[in-house]
Write a structure and sequence with these properties.
- By secondary structure, the protein is of the alpha/beta class.
- 26% of the residues lie in helices and 27% in strands.
- It has a 6-stranded mixed β-sheet with strand order 11-10-12-13-14-15, with helices on both faces. It has a 4-stranded mixed β-sheet with strand order 4-3-6-5, covered by helices on one side.
- Strand 10 (199-204) and strand 11 (209-215) form a beta hairpin.
Length: 307
Amino acid sequence: MSGGKGRSRVLDTGPVESMQPDRLTNEPNDELDGVSPEKEAEATEQTIEWAIRRYHKVQGPSAVNDKVVREQRIELVINGVPLLAMLALPRDVEALAVGFLVSEGLWRDRIRLPEVHFDAQAGKVMCVGRFDEDAVETIHRRWTFGTGCGGGGTARDLSLLDECRPIDSRFSVRVSQLVALGREFRQQSVLYRMTGGVHACGICDTDRLLLFAEDIGRHNAFDKVAGMALQRGLDLSDKIAVTTGRLSAEIVAKVIAHGLPVLASSSAPTAMALQWSRRFGLTLVGFLRGGRMNVYTGYQRVAADDG
């Protein structure tokens, strides 16, 4: 991805004041340098261009091409049988599938992962292996629609979280390190700066950002980086997850399932997220902005800097 591509450029449509009123709408003849906004996007494209009229305070409109994030309907197919479909950014889809399957308890083995192949043209991600049959068969009955976008939610509840181990990691991180990681994480969000339409998630050690993914939903973004970590055999017991948006119960459940000791966001937590974090020993950090943060649970893992 290139930050330069995210700039809007002014179309040569003549003085705005000379436009007819009907030219201020996205009509079929309102084209983008000869390319209609209704043109079918390529299967792997993350954005489209759309003709807009931009207003600034009391000034008249300017005609520009705007970058808009593009979601795709992606069907998850388990051993040849369609399981569910999700709306997601068509990038890192195989990692998304792996992360989702483990996050939701459909796949148990962290070493031998399922075979996964994404057919971008068909919008299907094919997953083959020995799945937990009970979890697969009951996922629709157990599914709780969450607070996020992209159809986010979770099949986990407290009874299923009881299958997860409490996080007893002695890992710790300094306040200054969290602040620096939050800054690096925000700088990495190129697609967000380009479109303003995505969430992001990253996995870090105490010194740097290791894995990063963006998606229209923060649930998908976390599953992507979790899947990347599984594909690389990365030990998550001494790592930090950083995410955008609310620290909701669904995100906390996914983090607990993967055994990460710390989860941080620039936003706020929900009550159930706090309860689950305390119960399973997760350190939850909210409002990580600038030089400040709130630590809600697992206080022992966040150390003040000397002096």
